[in-house]
């Protein structure tokens, strides 16, 4: 999967992967009953920045991409109350400014959206200054986060 | 042998920069240059010729269906032909490189991303593109080509300093290896006789604030382009985003948060249209 991309699947052999998140965030969702999984790699918090782009590529922004991720899962038979949400990414440059805050802004936008929609985050690995790769095994719902030079983390 | 001596020896042993690229840049520096003259220099270099034809057909340059070197030189124009030649020459060094948890093509993708981002920033602040900046963008992380294997051998110690002691990645490189990748890159560019401003922008690309006062806008643009690519995850590796954010960049480049975010959107589009530049290796 690329940046500003979204995929859903109910094929148990599929593994959805997104690489080098940087300040972007990967949201992995999974319904253990219907075995439907989905992953989004969004880049920016707010679609009001460029509404035209948001229509063309909704997965670019948190506020247009996350609802679309859930809807796409419902279409394959997932139900909201059963969906498990795991998130990773949102890294930041080392602090010396109140300027380069795309990572923090992404994290805040994500929490706000889930808060408003009564969705709990089951597990997360966000912030700090590392790059993360996220894998979702659609067959099992297992989510793994890989940081270069470190052990694999199971969320 | 000490690690630093081994690094210095690797810099000395790096193959010379392709003579064709240097010659073309020199000829095109003369306003009365002839296209035939340029074609005659390039055509004896089969690998650069093949690369130029591939790059010339990239949507990024906005031309289509170029099948001869002569057409490439005519339709691309001076600035883009120089860019195509630099892409061809510099990409060679990334081919067999690895390090920072990445392979050569991934390190190269980051370099192209930064080069494209410098043009987005340049268009924003001055209304025009700048081929020298593009070249500096392609070269900014060239030091990683040499330092990569040393970094990977010591990644746990380096990560330890970054994660537990608040070091930036380049300071951790200095502490563990004796040199950082920006310094190594500056020395390589010196060996290849690149001009002073390009050398400086490589050496200081993480710390433009440490440069002597003067005309150093160039270096701040490379710095910001690199930071934006790291945030957007364009070729991000084991060093992650562990570099200092310098808020002076807002004042110096007169650029706002919104410009940076719009720049990221533009970057994604340019990365797509410039995929021939990325796939050249």
What does this structure look like?
The complex is a heterodimer of chains A (155) and B (281). Chain A is an alpha+beta fold. Chain A has a single domain (5-154), classed as 2-Layer Sandwich (60s Ribosomal Protein L30, Chain: A), CATH 3.30.1330. Chain A has 3 helices and 9 strands. The mean pLDDT of chain A is 94. Chain B has a single domain (3-278), classed as Hypothetical protein af1432 (Orthogonal Bundle). Chain B is built from 16 helices and 2 strands. In chain B, helix 1 (3-12) runs parallel beside helix 11 (181-191), helix 6 crosses helix 13 and helix 7 packs across helix 12 (196-203). Chain B is globular, with a radius of gyration of 19 Å. Chain B starts with a helix and ends with a helix. The mean pLDDT of chain B is 91. The chains are: A alpha+beta (155), B mainly alpha (281). At the A-B interface, loops of A face helix 9, helix 13 and helix 15 of B.
Major sheet summary line of chain A: 5 strands, mixed
Query: Which chains have the largest interface?
Result: A-B, 35 and 36 residues
Radius of gyration of chain A: 15 Å
Unreliable sequence segments of chain B: none
The total of beta strands of chain B comes to: 2
**Number of domains in the coordinates of chain A?**
1
Level of helix content of chain A?
Answer: 10-25%
Supply the CATH superfamily name of chain B. Hypothetical protein af1432
Distance between the termini of chain A: 19 Å
Second rung of CATH, namely the architecture of chain B: Orthogonal Bundle
Order of helices and strands of chain A: EEEEHHEHEEEE
User: Under the CATH scheme, which architecture of chain A would be assigned?
Assistant: 2-Layer Sandwich
Helix content of chain B: 55-70%
Helical stretch tally of chain A: 3
């Amino acid at each position: 999967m690329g940046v500003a991309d979204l995929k859903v699947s109910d094929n148990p052999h599929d593994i959805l992967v997104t690489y080098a998140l940087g300040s972007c965030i990967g949201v992995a969702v999974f319904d253990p009953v219907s075995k439907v999984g989905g992953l989004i790699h969004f880049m920016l918090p707010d679609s009001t920045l460029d509404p035209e782009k948001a229509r063309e590529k909704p997965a670019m922004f948190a506020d247009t991409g996350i609802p679309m991720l859930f809807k796409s899962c419902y279409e394959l038979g997932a139900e909201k109350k059963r969906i498990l949400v795991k998130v990773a990414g949102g890294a930041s440059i080392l602090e010396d400014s109140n300027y380069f805050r795309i990572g923090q802004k992404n994290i805040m936008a994500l929490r706000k959206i889930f808060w408003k929609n009564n969705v709990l985050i089951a597990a997360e690995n966000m912030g700090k200054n590392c790059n993360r790769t996220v894998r979702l095994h659609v067959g099992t719902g297992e989510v793994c986060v890989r940081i270069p030079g470190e052990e694999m983390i199971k969320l | 042998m000490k690690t630093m001596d081994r690094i210095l020896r690797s810099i000395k042993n790096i193959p010379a920069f392709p003579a064709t690229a240097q010659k073309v840049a020199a000829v095109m520096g003369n306003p009365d240059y002839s296209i035939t003259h340029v074609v005659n220099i390039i055509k004896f270099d089969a690998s650069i010729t093949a690369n130029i034809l591939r790059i010339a057909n990239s949507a990024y340059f906005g031309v289509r269906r170029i099948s001869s070197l002569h057409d490439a030189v005519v339709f691309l124009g001076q600035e883009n032909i120089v860019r195509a030649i630099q892409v061809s020459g510099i990409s060679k060094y990334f081919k067999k490189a690895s390090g920072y948890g990445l392979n050569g093509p991934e390190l190269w993708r980051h370099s192209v991303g930064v080069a494209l981002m410098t043009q987005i920033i340049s268009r924003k602040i001055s209304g025009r593109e700048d081929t020298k900046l593009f070249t500096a963008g392609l070269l900014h992380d060239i030091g990683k080509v040499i330092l990569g294997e040393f970094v990977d051998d010591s990644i746990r110690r380096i990560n330890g300093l970054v994660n537990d002691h608040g070091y930036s990645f380049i300071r951790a490189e200095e502490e563990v290896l004796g040199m950082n990748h920006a310094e190594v890159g500056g020395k390589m560019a010196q060996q290849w006789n690149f001009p002073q401003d390009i050398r400086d922008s490589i050496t200081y690309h993480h710390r433009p604030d440490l440069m002597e006062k003067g005309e150093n806008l160039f270096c701040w643009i490379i710095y910001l382009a690199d930071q934006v690519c790291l945030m957007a995850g364009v070729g991000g590796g084991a060093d992650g985003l562990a570099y200092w954010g310098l808020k002076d960049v807002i004042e110096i480049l007169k650029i706002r948060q919104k410009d940076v975010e719009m720049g990221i959107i533009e970057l994604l589009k340019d990365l797509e249209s410039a995929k021939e530049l990325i796939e050249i290796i």
